[in-house]
Amino acid sequence: MSRVEWTRYSGEDIESVVAMFISAEYPQAERITPSSGDGGIDVLVKSDKTRVYQVKKFSAALTANQKKQVEKSVDSLVSDPRVKDMQVDEWHIVMPWDPTLEAKEWLADYVTAKGLPEPIWDGLTRCDLWASEYPHVVDYYLGGNAERIQQMALSIVHGLRLKDIRKEDVESRDFSGFAEELKDTVLVLNREDPFYTYGVHVEPPSLAPVEEELRAALKREKPGIVCTTIWGNSAIRVQVDVYAKNRVAFDLAPVTFNVNLTAKAGSPEATAIEDFIKFGSPLELPDGSVNGLANLPGGLGGEFENAAAAVLPNTTISEGASELRLVLVDENDQQVDSLTIKRKYTTTGIPTDKGPRGVETLLADALGIMTVVLRFDVDKQVQSLKLNVEAPDSSRLAVDALPVLRFYRRMCAPNSLVLAPRFGPLPEHRYPLNTVEGKGTRPADYWHDVAHALSLIQERTPQLLHMPNLSDVDENLVHQILKTGALLNGQTLTLKMDLVSTDHNPDASDDAETTVMLVPWAIDLPETKVDLGYLAHAFAGKFYKRAHEEPDGLYDVWRVHESKVLVRMLTKEEQKAL
Question: For the whole model, what pTM was predicted?
Answer without folding.
Answer: 0.63
